[in-house]
Amino acid sequence: MALHRLGYASLATLTFTSWVEAANPISFCKCLCGQNVTIIPISPVPEKDSCTKCTKAFCFKLEPTLCEGAGTGETVSVSCFQRDSYKDEVVVWLFLLITVGLLLAALVKPYLMNRRKV
Description:
Shape: elongated
Distance between the termini: 34 Å
Mean pLDDT: 78
Number of domains: 2
C-alpha cells in the first residue's frame, strides 16, 4: 500500500516539476545612462538567446534620447533580466500556503492539546 502511495507522490512530483520548468519568462533590457533608466521588453516570445540582443546599440536604437540631460561623459550600462516565470509564481504561492498553514497550526494546537488532556 505504501509503495502505491509512493508511486502517486512520484508522479505528482514529476508533473509538478515539468510544469514549473516549462516557465515562460519575459526578457527585458534595462538601459541606464546617468539617472535615466529605460526598461525595454526584448521580445514577446522568449528565445534562448534573447539576452544577446540587449546591447548599447539596441538601447540607442529604441530609445535615442536615453542620455539627453544626463550630462557629458556618462557611460551607458545595459543589463538583461527576466520576470514573470511560472517558477517564481510557484515559489511565492508555496511560501504563502506554508505560512498560512503554520499559522493555522499554531492557532489550533492549544485547543487540540486541551482536548487530548480531557
